[in-house]
Amino acid sequence: xxxxxxxxxxxxxxxxxxxxxxxxxxxxxxxxxxxxxxxxxxxxxxxxxxxxxxxxxxxxxxxxxxxxxxxxxxxxxxxxxxxxxxxxxxxxxxxxxxxxxxxxxxxxxxxxxxxxxxxxxxxxxxxxxxxxxxxxxxxxxxxxxxxxxxxxxxxxxxxxxxxxxxxxxxxxxxxxxxxxxxxxxxxxxxxxxxxxxxxxxxxxxxxxxxxxxxxxxxxxxxxxxxxxxxxxxxxxxxxxxxxxxxxxxxxxxxxxxxxxxxxxxxxxxxxxxx
Amino acid sequence: xxxxxxxxxxxxxxxxxxxxxxxxxxxxxxxxxxxxxxxxxxxxxxxxxxxxxxxxxxxxxxxxxxxxxxxxxxxxxxxxxxxxxxxxxxxxxxxxxxxxxxxxxxxxxxxxxxxxxxxxxxxxxxxxxxxxxxxxxxxxxxxxxxxxxxxxxxxxxxxxxxxxxxxxxxxxxxxxxxxxxxxxxxxxxxxxxxxxxxxxxxxxxxxxxxxxxxxxxxxxxxxxxxxxxxxxxxxxxxxxxxxxxxxxxxxxxxxxxxxxxxxxxxx
Lengths: 274, 267
Known about the structure:
Strand content of chain A: 15-25%
Mean pLDDT of chain A: 87
CATH class of chain B: Mainly Alpha
Strand content of chain B: under 5%
Oligomer: heterodimer
CATH class of the largest domain in chain A: Alpha Beta
Distance between the termini of chain A: 23 Å
Number of helices of chain A: 10
Radius of gyration of chain B: 25 Å
Number of domains of chain A: 2
CATH superfamily of the largest domain in chain A: P-loop containing nucleotide triphosphate hydrolases
Structural class of chain B: mainly alpha
Distance between the termini of chain B: 59 Å
Largest interface: A-B, 41 and 25 residues
Number of domains of chain B: 1
Shape of chain A: globular
CATH topology of the largest domain in chain A: Rossmann fold
Largest sheet of chain A: 6 strands, mixed
Helix content of chain A: 25-40%
Structural class of chain A: alpha/beta
Shape of chain B: extended
Strand order of the largest sheet of chain A: 6-7-8-3-9-10
Largest sheet of chain B: none
Low-confidence stretches of chain A: none
């Protein structure tokens, strides 16, 4: 844990579907500034729901969430808006307004800071101040995509779109980044590139980052800590070094752990450790 | 052992009953509407007579039709625009994913059904009684009907759109208004504009005959000429209506094609 206390504090978080089954059951953890936490676990373990609870895109059943010491679950509409602008989110895909330009999509990261009435000027392109546009442009530069500033987002490739999504997050100047499978649709080289941007910006800007990720190698290479989930519970929370193959096998289930691709990724994990 | 049942054939008597019912319904409807081949044949000479009295069309009245023709176009333009202006804000309240399923949603959706459930001619009749003869009641009638039809379509389009990009905006702390102006409208504009053109064309067709109930446009001229038995004038007016509708149809089709092509090329 870094000095200065946790940015994200989650206590006894429970999310239960109306039908009665649990997506997340009694989960507690802290994330400090500059930490990059990889959330791993089999599909259906509750990774996505957990991430979506943190900025209340999903309302949890019970528990407590503090982001930068603000109570997320008790926040009023206006307070929630202010909390959310402080939390950048990258989704698996289709994050962008396809028909808007890249610059417009990135500048949208400023919306949480702008008075509502300004969006009435959107048809004239006057929503954003010169400063907002400057910030947006700087973010574009950071992910090396400024040449596409005036291209429609829908015309970009998947990897380029994901960069734009990250640029939007950087434009928010957030204390927290939540990423749900941010590289699931990208080739390995692009995946490494994108995750490096996450790691670098978290370190440089002291951002607390949580990302769910399927590939164990990618997760290992680009995070400072790992939370392993299964059936809605946290089964492991700590350094990669102490995450044993037997625990991993237990988390992913014996059948899966028996497959050759899984044991291969475990071997790679060991390789990455040395 | 259980033998699977054969696919059940409908008994013949059921088919016979359905056929009988169909014949009865047709007979009843034809009788009620006075439809008969005999009448049609008996009326043929009268029709031929009328057609001959329509020819040649009286082109001298074209100078007189100039103003009503423009009025017909203006009726459709103003009626459509007013309808869109009325319904565009409402259509967000009628979209479940935007507003949630609540009283506001149901009230909005039912009002759309009321607006579009009644023919624009019925509205025109009512508005003529309220504000008097002329194009203005026609504008109101078209606006209301357009608002209902487009409102339903806009709401359903919003409900069917891909919500992931919108959720991403919510996640940066965008308010509802900001989501509308920076997410929903930019994404759906081509579809909205396409449908507005389609409805403008529909309104041109409607406004050619709105005059029959005294609500402006070419219809008034038509009514006058028919009542005065000036069938050569009637022919000219009908031909002009046909030309107008054809042109409007072409313009609307061209515009919609342009928008669609420019969007498809971007995919």
